[in-house]
């Protein structure tokens, strides 16, 4: 979902890439994604969300871990739309923006490791905008502190078993 009046700024705090085998053979590589999103701060027209991405491959060739903060700015109603879970993919809409902006770092790291890189359209097919594979999300929300008179919620999401051909 594209929300026109919400900007999403992504700041990567840490990135790790580990090549698990010395030589990689050609063939199909499937990527599994686990993602964690947690709301850190909420103010009027601004929300900060912490994220962690874990990408692994089948067969086990390489793994990537990225952690950072995404800052959403815009009208509160529009920000809330971005934090909703997409009913088709079961992934929060903001996660798509986070992945788009962290993909470049993972691509560069995979190039340096001489390992397969995750596809840029890992969550969606570039042709039809359809999900590439099955994605399941577990989410939980708990009350946290109140900032600027608004309750802050912690949201955790796990996206698993996303497959893509390399």
Give the key terms:
166 residues, alpha+beta, elongated, 2 helices, four-stranded antiparallel sheet, 17% helix, two-stranded antiparallel sheet
Count of DSSP-assigned helices? 2
Helical fraction equals 10-25%
**How many distinct beta strands?**
6
What sequence of helices (H) and strands (E) makes up the elements? EEEEHHEE
Report on this model:
The protein is α+β, with helices and mostly antiparallel strands and 166 residues long. The chain has a single domain (7-157), classed as Bacterial Protein-export protein SecB (Roll), CATH 3.10.420. It contains two helices and six strands; from the N terminus they run E-E-E-E-H-H-E-E. The protein has helices spanning 76-83, 93-113, and strands at residues 7-19, 30-43, 46-58, 62-73, 139-147, 150-157. The strands form two sheets. A four-stranded antiparallel sheet has the order 1-4-3-2, with helices on one face. A hairpin with a 2-residue loop joins strand 5 and strand 6. It is elongated, with a radius of gyration of 16 Å.
Give me the secondary-structure topology:
Layout: E1 7-19, E2 30-43, E3 46-58, E4 62-73, H1 76-83, H2 93-113, E5 139-147, E6 150-157
Antiparallel strand pairs: 1-4, 2-3, 3-4, 5-6
Summarize the structure.
This protein is α+β, with helices and mostly antiparallel strands and 166 residues long. The chain has 2 helices and 6 strands; from the N terminus they run E-E-E-E-H-H-E-E.
């Amino acid at each position: 979902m594209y929300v026109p009046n919400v900007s999403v700024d992504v700041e990567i705090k840490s990135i790790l890439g580990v090549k698990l085998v010395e030589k990689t053979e050609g063939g199909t590589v499937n990527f599994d994604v686990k993602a964690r999103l947690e709301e850190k701060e909420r103010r009027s027209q601004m929300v900060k969300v912490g994220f962690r991405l874990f990408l692994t491959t089948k067969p086990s060739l390489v793994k990537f871990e990225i952690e950072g903060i995404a800052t959403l700015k815009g009208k509160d109603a529009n920000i809330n739309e971005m934090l909703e879970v997409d009913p088709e993919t079961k992934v929060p809409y903001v996660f798509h923006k986070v992945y788009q902006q962290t993909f470049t770092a993972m691509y560069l790291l995979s190039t340096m490791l001489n390992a397969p890189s995750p596809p840029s359209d890992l969550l969606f097919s570039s042709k039809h905008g359809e999900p590439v594979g099955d994605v399941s999300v577990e989410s939980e929300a708990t009350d946290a502190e109140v900032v600027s008179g608004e309750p802050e919620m912690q949201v955790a999401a796990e996206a698993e078993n996303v497959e893509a051909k390399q």
